[in-house]
Please model this.
Amino acid sequence: MKKSKLILIIATSTMLMSCLDNSSYTYKGTTPLEISIAAPKGAPAAALYQHLFEDKVDINAPTNVQTWFLTGTLDAIIAPTNAGVNLIRAKQAPYKLAATVTFGNFFLVSTGNDENKTLDPDDSIFVPMSQADIPARLFNYAYASYNFSNISYGGDNSTAARNLILGYNELEAGHPSLDYVVVAQPALSTALATNQKANVVSSVQSKYKEVSGGKEIMQASIFINNGLAKEKADAFLNQIEKETKELLNHPEIVKDVFANVEDLQVQGKLTADKATFQNVIKDNSLGLGFKNAKANKDSIDKFLETIGVAPTSEEIYY
Amino acid sequence: MKKFITKNYTAITLGIIFVFVLWFTISKMNPYGKLLFPSIEDTFSSLGELLKSKYFYRSLAMTMYRTFIGFIISFALALVLGIVSGTSKWIYNFLYPLVTILKAIPTASLVFIFLALSDVMYASIYIVILLAFPILYEAIASGVRNVDKEVVEASKVDGANFIQGLGFIKLPLAIPYILLGLLTSFGLSLKTEIMAEIVTGNTGDGLGCMISAVRLAEPGNLAPIFAIALVTIIIVLLISLLSFLLKLLIKKTSSVE
Model:
């Protein structure tokens, strides 16, 4: 009797464990998109992770964003929120802001060179791109209280990742040493794997949220063409929302989604290989998500204000 | 021994060995390994990985396809205009300002101009056309103009008309110049095609697309970029070898005649 009870308990526990085990989730595939869409490669393209190689989906360099908006032929565009808003307002691009899909992926990372390992005003910091670009504006806003006086700018995120690995600014003559670098995912993961002394000190988006009173960085958004039928637009937005949630809840599906695709091809679209992409989704350091734009107008306006763009009016929203 | 050392192929072989010794030395002096200057081993290891990839072969084919399309269009235009300019001083002078402008325009600015005017897939083809055309045009025009005038006059005395003179005398004698122009411009076209793929940010198939992808996804590893560059060097060397063999064949054929 005792032995049979024990067997029953073990069997019941095993069954319960298998019900709770998330890794048993089965990826069932997806429906190809019915609309034409373009997105810059990297984090914004991650929202389209199940559709990267479809004919109607164009993943390309960020320099194409303006052309996409101005030609007006695409049904939807994923673009930096500020770029899209500016083009709608200034150039009457025929699009409306529908949803935000990335919420910041920048991190302040120590190179391991800072002797006292605390953030001081005279620490040397590298921020990618120029002082007028988004990474710098977000960083200077979020960390204004630190009064950093030794910030250098330049290159792009790849340069920042290399500077983190090297521990110095390779763009400047004399290669001055760096204490901290602002780097975006997914390049950050690769850099951390190479420089064992480096470690993430803080998340720019968390700091931004602290300073802005709980608002998020509304970095990249979906813009819908004014001419697209409402049913198609709504179906598309629902599909992307569902797929984003599926990815964040079950990062392991990356293997199935990209089962027939090489790492090099994935790198071209997402700037990360399959394993790195899965890792940055596990902790969502890529900042992926889905939020209705109109319902988060306050956050969008706060983000735009931070980067020097005027607040939005109701008519630009889908 | 002296004869052995002074032979051309000995000099070339020693030159190749020197390049590898230089590469080895620089990579060993660099403390950051493949972050700054990958070694020969890292590069060939990366090349080995690339050669296992179907995407690599598709990308190589696409880059070569776009380069050839641009190159052939350039050659066709250059052949027509080069022959006309080589025959007529007036036409040569008339086209001189345009050709000079094409030679002087910075290639990177052309990339952005064509990106605005055309699809990202085809912008690089237009850039190859504009880059290769002036070089090919000058080679053909010079080749036609530098044909020995006595030979041309002699053919006229023998009753050859303009077309016969062009087809049987001028063009065949201009071939060495044309071949040199083809070789110079093809290597440059290939480099430009790859550069244009990188600058346009094309994420499809192409060696430049691969370089761009690897640079962003693996910022601490330049070995794949070196490996792709090595592939390009091998292609240009093969084209040079082909051109050299072609020149030998033409020389042999003309001496037999």
User: Anything to note?
Assistant: Chain B touches chain A through 26 residues (CB under 8 Å). The CA atoms of residues 87 and 170 of chain B lie 10 Å apart. The first helix of chain B runs from residue 2 to 6.
